[in-house]
Amino acid sequence: MSAATTEIESVTFDEKKIGTEEISECFLWTEAEAQEHSRCQGGASNCGATALLNVLAALNLPQPEADAADKAVKTNLRKHNVSLSAYLAARSVAGTTGEDIVEGCALLGPESALVGRFFPFYPPRKVNLQTWLAGWLSRGCSAIATMNFQKMYGSDAWHHQMIYGVSDNGVYATNGQDVFSYEELLVGLESPSILAIRAADVLRCDPFDAECCDGIDSRWRDLAVCKQCEELKKSKEAGEQVAAHVFIPAAYTAGIAIFAPKD
Length: 263
What we know:
- The chain has helices at residues 3-10, 31-37, 47-58, 66-72, 84-93, 98-104, 129-138, 149-153, 182-189, 199-203, 218-222, 225-237; strands at residues 26-27, 114-120, 142-147, 159-167, 170-173, 178-180, 194-198, 245-249, 255-261.
- It is α+β, with helices and mostly antiparallel strands.
- The strands form 2 sheets. Strands 1, 2, 3, 4, 5, 6 and 9 form a 7-stranded antiparallel sheet that branches. It has a two-stranded antiparallel ribbon with strand order 7-8.
- Strand 5 (170-173) and strand 6 (178-180) form a beta hairpin.
- Helix 3 crosses helix 4.
- The chain is elongated.
């Protein structure tokens, strides 16, 4: 078993040094190589599968077909033309989670075998993100960040991106081709598991069975999703200003998954 594989399975989260030296810069690809070799997602909600395929490419391992990667990480799609409760339940799990990407490694076949571990970043952790990531990459590992893009940019969803480089300039990622500052990235990593649903998407659902939402599980009751939806509809019908979003539980945990080739 390689040193990287052993450390993925045994290292504690708050350990700042991987190996014996603190490293602040490491790249698996140059930016030009990342542009040439990485994939962009080819369908809705499959950024997790795309990130995993980019991990395999960066580690020079065979890549399965995109459909096989989607199946391995359990990619879930949004639902349309359904009741409110069915729509929101599907939105809460759309795509995949960092944990499911790690578990999906075991389903890719022996030629693409990886060892992975997901490290949650919420609640916030005492770790130097730059040296922590650079240390893993320097050991021959790759990484996938699971980020709350809604909190970072006001986007409509969370997002998974493969990390191929770390330097003083920031964290280099694929799909899209981004360089995140550490401060910027931590906004998306230090986030509770909550998804913001646009009011317009909520109001167009029919039937509007808001009363069924709190029965999905206790987290939905804790966020009073039923009450949020009912108050939104009442405000709309009364011609009043409506809230911009309804907040529901998200299946995703913000964090970073580390991967190494399996011996």
